[in-house]
Design a protein that fits this description.
Blueprint lengths: L1 H14 L16 E4 L2 E5 L12 H14 L14 H14 L3 E5 L2 H12 L5 E5 L4 H10 L2 E5 L4 H10 L6 E6 L11 H11 L2 E5 L14 H5 L7 E5 L9 E5 L1 H10 L1 H4 L6 H16 L1 H20 L11 E7 L1 H13 L2 E2 L1 E3 L9 E6 L6 H17 L4
Parallel strand pairs: 2-11, 4-5, 4-6, 6-7, 7-8
Antiparallel strand pairs: 1-2, 3-9, 8-9, 10-13, 12-13
This protein binds pyridoxal-5'-phosphate.
Length: about 400
Amino acid sequence: MLEDDLRKMLHEWADQGLLRHVRETQSPQGPTIQFDGRQVHNFCSNDYLGLANDSRLGQSIVNSIRQEGYGAAASRLLCGSMPSHHRLEREMARFKGTEACLLYSTGFMANQGILTSLFGKDDVIFSDRLNHASIIDGIRLSGASFHRYRHVDMDHLDRLLTAAPPAQRKCIVTDTVFSMDGDLAPLDRIVELAGKYQAMVMVDEAHAMGVMGDTGKGCCEHFGVADRVEIQMGTFSKAAGSFGAYCCGSRNLIDVLVNKSRSFIYTTGLPPLVAAASLKAVEIIERDQAHRNKLWDNTHYTRAALRLAGFDTMDSSTPIIPIRVGDNEKAVTFSRRLFEEGILVLAIRPPTVPPGTARLRMTVTAKHNKADIDYVLNKMQHIGKELQVI
Ligand SMILES: Cc1ncc(COP(=O)(O)O)c(C=O)c1O
């Protein structure tokens, strides 16, 4: 019975070109990797600054393991809260200019934990239509009323806010860099609207940390609105090259999360060595402007060439560069053809992106060199023409 149902589901997805498979990366992350038995140019990771295999993070891990061992062995609220966790929380609060910070084991857990702790059935949350799945799940679990505004459409958000009862507690929540489109939330306009309607603002800086802002703090720094955003969440799993997530905000906010956040309370603390690696990454992000400059250099160069070749890179303005294909099967074929040429750029299909907007999601890092980028651009153009994408 179960097996029949499972087979049916799998066949349906296969028929629609939506079946997913887990593949294997057989080398450390980097601009070239060994993937499914082949050496390929890697243009699909979130390792924007190339820190995922950085020896300085490795050394921090070695030092931590000597002093703190490997496992945290318990929830942070029992005996699993170790020096590296506390150091990283203090450092993140300083880095972000907030009173306090709380670590979560993953970004997914952070969004769920924050939203379910702070909001309930009497509240209303306004969420960008393209927000990350963990935000959507967190809102649903919280039981709050849920309004989705059209992607980065501030007029729509304004209209929805106007219609909400003035006395109801409101929160606007948004990714700051959208993970599949590579465009930015207009945070300057969002905080303005929040002020007008007395709404709180929560941001997810997962893809902005290390990438956006003069010192890599993210889009709150880029837009100069950090003091007008109450809840600043982000991850160490992208540009920081590590793992885990944070929430930065007021002391009271963090104390409430410590007492109420189920995904913080009922889970084992991160291995302290992970926090130690993140701590080193934050130091590098803040000090090493050269990495960020190289990343942006590569980003501008790649996107301009793709646009010139006639590809639709949507409204992307960050190192995440979508190449819109539309049809699911064609996007997969494009990705497969690139792989045959030694290039890893994966296809993203519904439900991760809206139906009819299947795309290649190309990401550029500080570690790519121009020769590799030119090779990829050349092959993309060739295959793009062959498949009539351009
Ligand atoms: C915008 C956004 N938020 C949250 C997450 C979840 O973070 P994590 O991978 O640490 O669970 C991701 C990606 O994974 C993301 O892209």
